[in-house]
């Protein structure tokens, strides 16, 4: 029997021209598009006529089960995630649930994740070895996040930080910077980008010490440079090591 | 005076439908497209009529200067890189040279980097905090790479490895695995993907111990799972932490 193939689609930061061709095709061919309401709205009017289904935040397990259940009805299903579906997205949860739905199979379609799209706005901060760390402790113990921050700093990685703040975690970026400041000098060049690929994108560069006291929100991606990073003309750049 | 804007374009893994809309537009609007010969060839016949310029490998500085010089002649220039131009690409080198060309400015257009596109093929290995490390010691001292491998393992990051091998560095993945095996158990699930988004994409999953003796090449991206990664149905998946 042919299995029902569910497409797990990374839509990038939100703007349609930052999606890949294969992501657009997967959504065009879907009968049902499932996602978090904000992202469905960002898809705009392009996909009129599709059935749109969603669940609120923190109901990701229900949302994924919905995708399997719709697929089992014989419908063509695309599950959308912002950025890349495999980076803090729902791809791994779908694989975790897959064994319960024996007649389904999965295809992940990659998208531009915030680390990459924000880096392009800021200049070239990720142009050497880097780490991506989420400060959200909803699903991860804070001690593990703290350990990773320390190891990233010790390894002289560039660090991209996701979820640096939220209503309930207003001081998390401050806490993270305090840990990094035990290892990294206060003058280390850093940067941040807000609302990447949406209206009112804004960005800035600053020192690690200044970053500690910078107000950010859940739509901000934060960058801590490595020992070769520098600021040129308002842009954050990490050297690759070429001899000039 | 209006400055000459140079677009530094990430073309993704190679297939046109894995490029973003804005990357395609930047190439369509360019009069001159500059890149490494292999990538120019991958663009295929879509951009017939453009002027194509290239320099061989290890002549990246010359290639970047060529972009500035063409732009200064008043031509619309796009410099292409595989994957994301800001991830081991030429974006940072362009920023380093920018001050020498005062009437030019830069825009980086992000693309799907191999870490993301390979992860989508393998399953969902990067679905939690991760590091990206290149094993190429052409521009980076090996000791720094070694330190980063250790810190990534200590921090329980998923690790994506670029440039795991080349003609002159046949045993580098082996050396890297030996370092990781000092910290990580030999049974840790790993994976690799070759020729992502091109003909004959292949992938596999294995243990860290098996990875040590796996033959890879410069077109392979390698993944080392974290302590929650597991293999399901031939796919490598890292748990995000949802309660099922």
Describe this structure in words.
The structure is a homodimer of 244-residue chains. Chain A has 244 residues and is of the alpha/beta class. Chain A contains eight helices and 13 strands. Chain A has helices at residues 21-29, 37-42, 60-72, 91-97, 114-122, 142-154, 172-180, 208-212, and strands spanning 4-10, 32-34, 51-53, 77-81, 104-109, 123-124, 130-134, 158-162, 189-194, 202-207, 220-224, 229-232, 235-238. The first copy, chain A, has a five-stranded parallel beta sheet with strand order 3-2-4-1-5, sandwiched between helices. Chain A has a five-stranded mixed beta sheet with strand order 7-8-11-9-10, with helices on both faces. In chain A, strand 7, helix 6 (142-154) and strand 8 form a beta-alpha-beta unit. The radius of gyration of chain A is 19 Å and the shape is elongated. The interface between A and B is large, with 75 and 75 residues. Strand 7 (130-134) of chain A pairs antiparallel with strand 7 (130-134) of chain B.
């Amino acid at each position: 029997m042919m299995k029902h193939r569910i497409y797990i689609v990374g839509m990038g930061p939100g703007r349609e021209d930052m999606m890949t061709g294969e992501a657009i095709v997967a959504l065009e061919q879907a009968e049902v598009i499932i996602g978090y309401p904000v992202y469905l709205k960002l898809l705009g009017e392009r996909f009129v006529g599709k059935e749109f289904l969603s669940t609120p935040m923190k109901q990701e397990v229900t949302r994924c089960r919905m995708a399997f259940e719709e697929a089992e009805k014989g419908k063509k299903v695309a599950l959308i995630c912002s950025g890349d579906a495999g980076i803090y997205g729902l791809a791994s949860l779908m694989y975790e649930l897959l064994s319960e739905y024996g007649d389904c199979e999965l295809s992940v379609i990659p998208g531009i994740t915030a680390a990459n799209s924000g880096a392009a706005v800021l200049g070239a901060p990720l142009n050497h070895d880097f780490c991506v760390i989420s400060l959200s402790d909803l699903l991860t113990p804070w001690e593990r996040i703290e350990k990773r921050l320390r190891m990233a700093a010790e390894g002289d990685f560039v660090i991209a930080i996701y979820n640096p703040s939220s209503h309930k975690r207003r001081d998390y970026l401050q806490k993270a910077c305090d840990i990094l400041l035990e290892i990294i000098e206060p003058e280390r060049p850093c940067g941040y980008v807000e609302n990447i690929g949406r209206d009112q994108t804004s960005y800035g560069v600053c020192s690690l010490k200044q970053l500690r006291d910078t107000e950010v929100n859940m739509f901000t991606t934060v960058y801590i440079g490595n020992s070769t990073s520098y600021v040129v003309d308002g842009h954050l750049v990490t050297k690759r090591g070429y001899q000039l």
